[in-house]
Amino acid sequence: MKIIDLHCDTISALYTRREALLRNTGHFDLERAMKSGIKIQFLALFVGPVESSIALEKVKEQISFYHDELERNKDILYSITTTDQLYPQPENNAIGSILHLEGAEALGQDMGVLYSLYESGLRSMGLTWNNGNLLAQGIGEGPEASGLTSWGREVVREMEKRGIILDGAHISVKGFFDLLEVYNKPLLVTHANARALCKHPRNLTDQQLTALGENGGIVGVNQVSDFVKDHNPVIDDLIDHIVYIADLIGVEHVALGSDFDGADDIVMSGIEEYKFWPQLLNKRGFNAKEINMILYENALRIITQVLG
Ligand SMILES: [Zn+2]
After folding, report:
1. Is 143 exposed, middle or buried (0-12, 13-18, 19+ CB in 10 A)?
2. Ligand 1 mean position to 91 CA, how many Å?
3. Ligand 1 centroid to 259 CA: how many Å?
4. Ligand 1 center to residue 287 CA distance, Å?
5. Which of 11, 17, 130, 184 is the most buried (most CB within 10 A)?
6. CB atoms within 10 A of CB 183
7. Residue 160's Cα: distance from chain center in Å?
8. What local confidence, expressed as pLDDT, does residue 181 receive?
9. Can you list the residues of the chain whose pLDDT is less than 50?
10. Cis peptide before 278 (omega within 30 of 0)
11. For the domain 3-307, what is the CATH superfamily, name and number?
């Protein structure tokens, strides 16, 4: 079993808690991940809505923590920056990481910052967290919030040119549709579910999902309980979202985006419970090929298309 997970906040959580990536008390660590079939994990940097110079300073601190962890665990963790590293992947249980930035406050109005983050290994970015910034409005600004600014559009075009994965999670609804219009590569929504099943504003409406399918993009389903169901959701309730999205836009558009360490209350105890997924998906009618698509192939296809 091979798995790609499109989002976790483990790096920023561990940086704050001063814990190690190899073994820790959170949802994700390398020891458990290696036993769980994880081949590629997106590792997010997150600083929240702060002024750009402060954001940049904090992002740099987290990047240096990430590089320290790469160095400490160099036999089992590596940084993916080119498609060459995907074909073939290491024979051992080593985990490839894709460095992601959740909210681009750190850019200020300087494209040079994007270039230097790229040099530091960044290959994935979402323009906003829930709050708006110089690039776009976030989903937390309400359903009528505006979309991308002209600076935001410029950044998206540069991301496309450089081969940086664009994340449509957290952005306003208008911003989401702007991304689809400006970015000519498949869009990744790294951690969100279906609004039709759970009314959280971060979840995608049918209209958004349909547009994402037409774009060739994918959505990674989010384990945070509030995004799954109102009362005491379990893993099977999250699989309802997979079934719903697959029925609506096709199984080739569904993947995993746990949000490990992004919230306390999620539907799994941690990464170790991914081992149950093939069986759970099989019980819901997915065949072996489809299970492999959801857990691995769909995400690999998009990463290849964008980085390539
Ligand atoms: Zn998030």
Report:
1. exposed
2. 31
3. 7
4. 30
5. 11
6. 19
7. 17
8. 98
9. none
10. no
11. Metal-dependent hydrolases (3.20.20.140)
